[in-house]
Amino acid sequence: MNTLAWTDNLVLNLPQLDTTHQEFVELLNAFGDALDTGADALPTYQALLTHTEAHFAMEEDWMARCGFEPQNCHASQHAMVLNVMREALRYANELNDREPLRILRTELAGWFPQHAEMMDAALVWTMEQRGFDPVTGECGEVVAAESAGAGCGSSSCGH
């Protein structure tokens, strides 16, 4: 049983990001499968965490190159998710408590589509508007520091 289905709603028409997102979904499903079968889920969870760290770092690099403020709410959400994922791993390793991993599986499956459809879609839109090429890392539009406060796409964002 899939933890999260890959659907057209998750496609943002940016190949680098769509591939990364599809890999995230596949890794989340592999982790869920390990939990469901009673296998040791830690290796698949560690692979998911490692992928998620690189995934978020890639997006945050793009944000920096496009002129997002360093402390924007998109990056803050990444930090919160990684903190929770790392804490669940610590519980599993140090306390032999696997329950946070089971809970996190469900929470990530609910969180990810919303994040992709709102915050990541806003990032892609900003990249397009500013002529950013994720392959070369070049931004066609020079973003002045005083106008760099690109928001995250959330209606609650103060930018």
Unreliable segments of 5+ consecutive residues: none
Q: CATH topology, anyone?
A: Four Helix Bundle (Hemerythrin (Met), subunit A)
The overall strand count is: 2
* Total of helices: 4
The helix-strand sequence is HHHHEE
Identify the overall geometry: elongated
| Shape-level CATH architecture | Up-down Bundle
Oligomer type: single chain
User: Mind telling me the CATH class?
Assistant: Mainly Alpha
Rg (CA only): 17 Å
Work out the strand percent.
Answer: under 5%
> Which structural category do the helix and sheet elements fall into?
mainly alpha
If you average the pLDDT, what whole number results?
Answer: 90
Q: In this structure, how is the largest beta sheet organized?
A: 2 strands, antiparallel
Strand order of the largest sheet: 1-2
User: What is the end-to-end distance?
Assistant: 40 Å
Number of domains: 1
Fraction of helical residues: 55-70%
Q: What would you say about this model in short?
A:
With 159 residues, the protein is mostly helical. The protein is built from 4 helices and 2 strands. A two-stranded antiparallel ribbon has the order 1-2.
SSE map:
Elements: H1 15-37, H2 42-66, H3 73-94, H4 99-129, E1 132-133, E2 138-139
Antiparallel strand pairs: 1-2
Structure, described:
The structure is a single chain. By secondary structure, the chain is mainly alpha-helical. The protein has one domain: Four Helix Bundle (Hemerythrin (Met), subunit A), CATH 1.20.120. Helices cover 64% and strands 3% of the residues. It has 4 helices and 2 strands; from the N terminus they run ααααββ. A two-stranded antiparallel sheet has the order 1-2. The chain starts with 14 loop residues before the first helix and ends in a 20-residue tail after the last strand.
